[in-house]
Q: What sequence folds into this?
């Protein structure tokens, strides 16, 4: 339906054949589908920490990113902090945007829809009376997240809406944010 | 009747289940004079007599209800049968086709043995060349594992136990699941005066009437119900599709998240977890509604295109589009179990139950493996969702499946008989 001519092939830089191949392979070998994502974090000073991401586990063995990636997190100056990086809550928005946009590109590729631009604007409300312990009834985290996508693509508005809906359905970060996740935090003396 | 463990009786085919599928297969077997029995744990159409709630009506209009050799011949073609009507329709069919039903015979074990099957029941045992599993798709209500975490102070009902709102205690009721059943229950429980919270995950939205015709007419006439499983991109997902949000009523009313919200039902996201006394709901409600609206509109577009191509524009009403589903500004993310929510009704689907089938025919998830109803040589299954066609689990859908699977079964019997003749001939020294 999205194919104007039989020879038209959208190119969004997604190797959809590889993704579909992986889906088929991991259906037959579910143990290979069990991944472990990892990050380490080193406190620097004040509210400034530096996290590093380099290795993960998947397809039955240890894997490495092409190089290691570092992420500074801090609080802004209005909190009398040093503002050496995005706040941790902003990283949540970064993760959500990255996940949904990757999904949009993959779904568009699979549906043979050429994307020209995909721009997401995210906003999350948060009442600081929660984290500051002023009001017990206010939660620490976001009271809601809004995401708006502005997409230029060779597709109808309905097809674009379907891309965005499908990417939410298949998004890991959307699921992590929208649904409860069990967290275990332990500590030991170094 | 012989006692369990006695010498098995011999028959060519055993059909397990005296519902519409088993009886339709029996009719096909009788037409070919194949010696068979239909084993039924109760009376024919047992589940329709004993396991259905008071308000249940079929989701398909009467004119669609037909079995091989028995069309609907009542006076209300646009009405919707109650469970008792369906039971009567099926019972009439059993008499019409003179089905050799063994009533009150519960199958305890089916096992392959030396090219045949042994069927053990609480009465006689049977040895046969072929078995047809027609015990239905709705044997076991599915309840998610998190039900185990629900505090004991909350009463829990499955769709099999639930009969009527009056059986529920007072207080808020959480209905889990937004299929036809979930929405119907949410609506009738709300109308009984109880506050109702409906947890909605992915669902299928459909208007009852579209352009003046029943949506089931559109699905049937445009060929959607005849789509074959092998033409589906993702057959596994096609088979797992929840039932569309429909209700059979005299008013031919539409039932969707909008209509139940107008009745005062509060809609929230999928039940994601139970932690202590808190039920936690997903923040994905808007997206599952958007997905359902988009899919419904795509379906209506295919209807419109089909009507145009067939030149039916003058015969059906004008093109319609329905308002997008609206949800609360901030749908609730949690509910207090016990003090607030006192009852949970699990409308989370049904699965077939082949626990008595002792053969290596199940996949890693415990689901029956089959190729469009052929489970193993001489072993067949009928009536599962999208078994061969989208209509396979409908009453009117069984006819086409039975025709094809019966043909396969006859070949199997012929081969078995041929092999037997060769063995006899070989034993006699002839060629």
A:
């Amino acid at each position: 339906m999205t194919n104007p001519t039989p020879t038209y092939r959208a190119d969004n830089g997604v190797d959809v054949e590889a993704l579909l191949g992986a889906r088929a392979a991991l259906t037959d070998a579910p143990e290979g589908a069990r991944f472990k994502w990892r990050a380490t974090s080193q406190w620097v000073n004040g509210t400034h920490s530096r996290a590093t991401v380099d290795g993960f586990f998947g397809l039955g063995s240890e894997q490495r990113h092409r190089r290691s990636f570092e992420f500074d997190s801090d609080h802004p100056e209005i909190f009398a902090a040093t503002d050496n990086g995005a706040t941790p809550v902003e990283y949540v928005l970064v993760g959500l945007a990255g996940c949904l946009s990757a999904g949009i590109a993959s779904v568009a590729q699979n549906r043979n829809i050429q994307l020209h631009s995909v721009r997401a604007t995210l906003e999350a409300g948060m009442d600081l009376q929660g984290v500051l312990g002023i009001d017990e009834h206010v939660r620490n985290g976001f009271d809601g997240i809004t995401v708006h996508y502005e997409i230029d693509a060779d597709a109808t508005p309905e097809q674009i809406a379907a891309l965005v809906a499908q990417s939410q359905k298949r998004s890991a970060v959307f699921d992590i944010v929208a649904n409860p996740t069990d967290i275990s935090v332990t500590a030991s003396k170094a | 009747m012989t006692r369990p463990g006695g010498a098995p009786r011999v028959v060519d085919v055993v059909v397990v289940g005296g519902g519409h599928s088993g009886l339709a297969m029996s009719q096909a077997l009788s037409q070919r004079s194949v010696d068979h029995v239909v084993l039924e744990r109760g009376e024919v159409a047992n589940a329709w007599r004993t396991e259905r709630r008071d308000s249940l009506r079929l989701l398909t209009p009467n004119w669609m209800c037909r079995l091989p050799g028995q069309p609907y011949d009542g006076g209300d073609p646009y009405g919707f049968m109650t469970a008792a009507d369906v039971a009567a329709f099926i019972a009439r069919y059993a008499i019409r086709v003179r089905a050799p039903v063994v009533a009150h015979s519960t199958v305890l074990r089916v096992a392959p043995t030396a090219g045949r099957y042994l069927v053990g029941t609480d009465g006689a045992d049977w040895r046969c060349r072929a078995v047809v599993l027609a015990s239905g798709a709705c044997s076991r209500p599915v309840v998610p594992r998190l039900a185990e975490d629900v505090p004991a102070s909350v009463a829990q009902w499955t769709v099999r136990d639930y009969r009527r709102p009056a059986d529920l205690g007072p207080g808020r009721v959480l209905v889990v699941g937004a299929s036809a059943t979930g929405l119907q229950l949410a609506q009738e429980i709300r109308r009984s005066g109880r506050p109702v919270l409906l947890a909605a995950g992915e669902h299928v939205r459909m208007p009852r009437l579209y352009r003046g015709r029943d949506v089931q007419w559109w699905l049937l006439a445009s060929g959607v119900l005849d789509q074959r499983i092998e033409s589906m991109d993702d057959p596994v997902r096609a088979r797992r599709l929840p039932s569309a949000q429909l209700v059979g009523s005299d008013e031919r009313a539409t039932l969707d998240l909008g209509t139940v919200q107008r009745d005062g039902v509060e809609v929230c996201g999928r039940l994601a977890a139970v932690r202590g006394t808190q039920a936690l709901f997903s923040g994905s409600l808007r997206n599952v509604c958007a997905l359902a609206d988009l899919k419904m509109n795509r379906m209506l577009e295919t209807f419109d295109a089909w009507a145009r191509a067939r030149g039916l524009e003058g015969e059906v009403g004008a093109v319609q589009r329905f308002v997008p589903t609206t949800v609360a500004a901030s749908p609730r993310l949690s509910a207090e179990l016990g003090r607030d929510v006192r009852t949970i009704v699990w409308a989370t689907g049904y699965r077939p139950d082949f626990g008595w089938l002792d053969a290596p025919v199940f996949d890693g998830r415990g689901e029956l493996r089959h190729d469009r109803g052929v489970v193993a040589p001489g072993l067949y299954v009928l009536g599962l969702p999208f078994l061969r066609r989208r209509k396979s689990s409908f009453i009117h859908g069984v006819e086409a499946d039975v025709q094809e699977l019966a043909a396969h079964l006859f070949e199997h019997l012929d081969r078995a008989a041929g092999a037997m003749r060769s063995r006899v001939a070989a034993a006699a020294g002839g060629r």
Remarks:
- Residues 9-139+352-427 of chain B form a domain with the FAD/NAD(P)-binding domain fold (CATH 3.50.50.60).
- The two ends of chain B are 41 Å apart (CA to CA).
- The mean pLDDT of chain B is 94.
- The longest helix of chain B spans residues 398-427.
